[in-house]
Structure formats: structure tokens, C-alpha cells
Amino acid sequence: MKLRYFITLILVVLFATFFVSADKIFLNIGTGGTAGTYYPLGGAIAEILNSKLTNVNATAVSTGGSVANINMLKENSIQMAFVQNDVAYYAYNGIEFFQDKKFTGMKALCSLYPETVQIVTLANKGIKTIYDLKGKRVAVGAAGSGVEVNARQILAAAGLTYKDIAVQYLSFADAANGLRDGTLDVAFLTAGLPTAAVRDIASQKDIMLIKIPDNIVKDLISKYPFYIKTVIPKDTYPKVTEDIQSLAVLAMLVVRDDMTDDLAFSIVKAIFENLQRLEVAHQMGKFIKKENALFGISIPMHPGAEKYFKGK
Fold first, then answer.
1. What's the whole-model pTM score?
2. Are 130 and 242 within one domain?
């Protein structure tokens, strides 16, 4: 009798464990390089979801950035991602480098914060303007990243192509190492301010941020409505003594469109009710606000997220 009871108890525990596991939702969040802004914020979001949503097991995954994240969403190797609003638009509409890889199987959860284009060099390089990049060793971001798109468009507006530079596809961290080691002259980075990789090199070397001139700013904003004019404040990095005119895009959170309305609603609710955790993770967290969450959305919203923000 005791044996039968013991076996029954074991079976009950096993079945209970199976059903709990079966109900668990595993959510991989595509971010960017570990030295950027996406990764720490993605880690904080994963922590929020794991603590507030009992049926979710979320993990932040380091990736090549926006373009790579969209491809990974398509493959379902990630289910949620940080993506620049311009890159999301290209993918959804099948233009730019998504001409043969159009992807409409994603929806927006929210807009997060501005991402500033930063063109970084060392003060002793003698590189003063965007036009001085000709013939230089230039990091344009990781292959398959939103940074690479920005770099290519800005160079084109200056009358330059990749044939005019010694192009290198590097992550933020590798670009910082290249500047420090002297194997690189200039690096493009698009991220929230301050960016860890830039702060790292600025703590060891005297850096210079290259301004984007008015004519290029106007040209790019007229061609690409996702760009906004912005300024990198002089106190952002050590020894940068003047404000630097630049451009910015907007970071968004996107998900696969097969995510349920209830889950999408719960995710944005958990995030926007725990914004203090994002502020601790990175300074850009202070720019993430509910009142700005629908600004700059470049693809259709997920109905579940829309319900949260609009109270539908």
C-alpha cells in the first residue's frame, strides 16, 4: 500500500513538473554588442520580465545589432529585439539591404530613446571633418548592424563610398581597441549617450568627435525621415570641450507577430511599471518614458502593446 502511494506521489510530481515546464515561455531578447547600450538595457528588461511574469524565462542575447536582430527574429532564434526605427522600416518594406529579404512578421512594442551617431577619432590624428575620412581606416560598425547603415548613408552624403576608405566591420568594443592600439583612424558608433566603448577610449586617450555639418544633416533628414538633428553635449566624454552637432535615430523594441496579445500587453506593462531598473542599468534609461513610447514607431504596433498604451 505504501509502495503504491509512493509511486502515485512520484507520478503526480512528474506530471506537475511537466506541465509547469510546458507552460513556461522562453523569450530570447536580441540586443547588440556587450560594449553598447542595447545589451545592459536588454539584461535589465530580462530581469524585469523574469521577476514580474511568472510564466516567462527571458534571456538577453548579445548580437550584431539591428539588422542581425531582424534576421534572428525571422529565424525565431530570438523572439524580441532592440532595433533602430530606420532599419525596421527597411526590413518591413523590403528596401535597402532587405530588398530580397523583406520581413513583415514583426510588430513594434514601443519606442525607447534616441540613438546618436558618433564619429570618433583621436585628437592627434589631425582628422577635423567628415571629408577628411578619405583614405583613412574607418570602422563602420559590425556587419549586419544599424550602425553600418548610418555610416554608409553619412559617407554617401559627403560624397564618399567604401571605396574611398579602408573599411573595417567592427563591434563597438573592437573599434575602441583599434583606436587605442593605432590600427584604426575613425569609428562610427550609433548608440545612446554615453556609450561605454567611447567612454572607455576617452579615459585613456584624448578623443575628438567629428561634427556632421549642416548640409549633410539637412540632406539626410530630407532623404530619410527617421533621422533627427541632435547635439552631443560637451560634458558627455572627458576632454570633449564643445557641443558636437550630429544625427540620431530611435531605438525600438520589436517582437515576432505571433506573440500573443496577452503576452505583449504584459511585457510592456512590466517594463513601464519598472523603469527605475532601466535607469540603473544605463543612463539612457532615463529617456524611456510612457509618454514617448509611440514616438517614431516605423512599423505596425502589436495589438497587445497598443492596448496597453491606448487603453483599447
1. 0.76
2. yes
Question: Average pLDDT of the chain?
Answer: 91
Give the CA count within 13 Å in the CB-facing half-sphere of 279. 9
Element (H, E) at 207: strand 207-209
Q: Could you tell me the residue range of the domain that residue 244 belongs to? A: 116-249
Shared domain check, 152 and 108: no
Q: What is the number of domains present in the chain? A: 2
Query: What is the rounded distance in angstroms from the CA atom of residue 78 to the CA atom of residue 27?
Result: 7
Q: End of a domain among 249, 278, 300?
A: 249
For residue 311, give the DSSP letter.
Answer: -
Instruction: Answer for the pair 96, 185: CB distance below 8 angstroms, yes or no.
Output: no
Are 81 and 28 spatial neighbours (Cβ–Cβ below 8 Å)? Answer: no
CA distances to 25, 29, 219, 268, 295 from 77, rounded to whole Å, are 14, 9, 37, 21, 28
Q: Over the stretch 18-40, which tens digit does the pLDDT of each residue have? A: 444 458 999 999 999 888 889 99
Residue 209's CATH number = 3.40.190.10
Cβ atoms of residues 251 and 115 within 8 Å = yes
Whether cis (ω within 30° of 0) applies to the bond prior to 194 is: yes
Phi, psi at 254, each rounded to 5°: -125, 160
Interatomic CA distance for residues 83 and 254, integer angstroms: 7
Instruction: Mark whether 240 and 154 lie in a shared domain.
Output: yes
